[in-house]
Amino acid sequence: MSGEEVVVAEAPAPVLGEPMDIVTALQLVMRKSLAHGGLVRGLHEGAKVIEKHAAQLCVLAEDCDQTDYVKLVKSLCADHNVSMVTVPNAKTLGEWAGLCKIDSEGNARKVVGASCVVVKDYGEETEGLHIVQEYIKSH
What we know:
By secondary structure, the chain is an alpha/beta fold. It contains 5 helices and 7 strands; from the N terminus they run βαβαβαβαβββα. Helices cover 40% and strands 17% of the residues. It has a 5-stranded mixed beta sheet, sandwiched between helices. Helix 1 (22-35) packs across helix 5 (127-138) and helix 2 packs parallel to helix 3 (67-79).
C-alpha cells in the first residue's frame, strides 16, 4: 500500500446472488465508514487526516478540474503511503459520502459534489471491505 492509484468505473447495481463488483463494494465501505464516523470529506479535512497518518484509503474524483488539487492529494497519499482509488464523477462520490438529501422514496436529492473523500475508519468488517482491499492489492 504505497500510495498507488486505482481507477473505478461506474456500474449498475448487482443482482442478489452475484459477486459484488468494486464500485458496489466501495460504496458499501463508504456507507459503513460514514455510519461509524470514519469518513472525512474535502481537501482541508482530508489533508489533516492524511498528515496525521490516520488515513486508510483516499477516494479522488477524476472529473476534478483543478490540477493543483489533484497533485496535492496524489502527493500526500504517496508521501504517507495511503492507497488511493479514483471514481469518475464528483457528484457520485458526494452522494456516497452523504453530501445529499434523501427524499421519501429513498432517492438522493440536492447532491453536492466531493472531489476528495478520505476513510480513516472502515467501521466493521464486510464483504465489500475485503473486495476493496483485494482490488487495491492487485492494482
